[in-house]
Amino acid sequence: MKRTAIRCLLLTYLSLFWALAGAAGLERGTPESVGLSAERLARLSAALQEYVDNEQLAGSVTIVARRGQIAYLEAFGQRDRQARSAMQTDTIFRIASQTKAIVSTAVMILQEQGKLLIGDPVGNYMPEFASTTVAVPRADGGYDVVKAARQVTIRDLLTHTSGYDYGTGVAADLWQNAGITGYYFSDRNEPIAETAALMATLPASAHPGERWIYGYSIDILGALVEKVSGQPLDEFLSERIFEPLGMTDTSFYLPRSKRDRLATVYAMRDGSLERAPEEGSAGQGAFVDGPRRSFSGGAGLLSTATDYASFLQMILNGGQLDGQRILSRTTTELMGVSHIGDIEFRPGQGFGLGFSVLEDVGVRGTPGSIGELGWGGAYHSTYWIDPEEELVVVHLTQLIPAGDVDDQAKVRTLIYQAVVD
Predict the structure, then answer these.
(1) 404 within some domain
(2) Cβ neighbours of residue 128 closer than 8 Å, sequence gap 6 or more
């Protein structure tokens, strides 16, 4: 009992330390020490406060790290408007699809261990995917289910070219009948392997390698990580990524002791902020009071701005942070180039192994650098890594749907205008 009490005290101390000091491996600096203007960054603060004042955002947390140091870490607004609880820099957010880059990293760890190759068919490890089907639309509005032109590969899943959407495509009726819809599995009372096996029996919306389609690809990868590693996904991520990087506030489900740190979800409806309901897979309580059995590799993680910035800094550093090597430099370089060839995606961008990749700044039309990696989450969060500027940015909010709130574009512009060296 005494040993348990001492351990709890130590964990409490460490949590407080990391909350105050930022994340392991990311030291606090000053804007000027890393070539940013504090005076110009004040414009970012003013803009983010204005979104709160105008009731477009309940609150947000934004971190800017450059050259390995935190130059900006600020919280605005409320974590919970009704409770009048102020947003804090260590507030925990539902990061939704920001989970995808972390699970993609887990796959690359397994490749480095010699346990798989990303060019392998998924069916080599999960036999249910050895023979899959595709729903092909007909002119009369119906569809035919045909055998997939080839097997789905691990790389197809990493690049969202597997053909699997979120169950809303050509054969949406079959997916709905099977009970697989939406982004979140936090309320599903079954392991992700069972959900993925059911997905394998349902038709995709395109043949493998045919189109870029956003969907359950990374959730399937989460099940693959479990199968290949022999560990539950949460344990594998904790041992291989979270613990080495000091990501003490990143998990699939919220420890009940941290409930008061979880950001409340709001929705923008008819120009007004509304509190989201308590129930449902995307509700307020699912990550606290749900079954805690389904580890969604595509959208299931909770995290903080500093934790996620540590993960991104590791990628920027070529796979290591604070003496902890997660991946080799060559693997992070492989992840950071487009793998989709001529497949249509977004203007000026390709897609790598877990991230979008900026290939033409002018075509995209917003500030950044060639080679920039990024993505975001359904709760209106965004992040990016700019290797040329040695820059890591994480901007977290909890707004779904977000409507036409344009804070993400403003954050990008106001960070780059603060670069002076």
Answers:
(1) yes
(2) 196, 197, 200, 201
pLDDT in tens, 399-417: 999 999 999 999 999 999 9
Annotated catalytic residues are 97
Both 159 and 304 in one domain: the answer is: no
- Residue 12, both tokens: 């409490």
Residue 1 in any domain: the answer is no
Q: Average pLDDT, whole number, for the chain?
A: 92
Helix axes 99-112, 217-229, angle to 10 degrees: 40
Rounded to a whole number, what is the distance in angstroms from the first to the last CA of the chain?
Answer: 55
pLDDT digits (tens, 9 = 90+) for 279-295: 655 556 667 877 899 99
- Residues with Cβ < 8 Å from 129, sequence gap 6 or more? 121, 122, 123, 151, 152, 200, 220
Residue 298's alpha-carbon distances to 9, 196, 224, 419, in angstroms, are 34, 12, 12, 33
Find the domain containing 61 and state its range.
Answer: 23-101+234-416
Task: Tell me how far apart the alpha carbons of residues 318 and 352 are, in angstroms, rounded to a whole number.
Answer: 15
- Please report whether residue 282 resides in a domain: yes
> Which residue among 189, 212, 232 closes a domain?
232
For residue 110, being part of any structural domain is answered with no
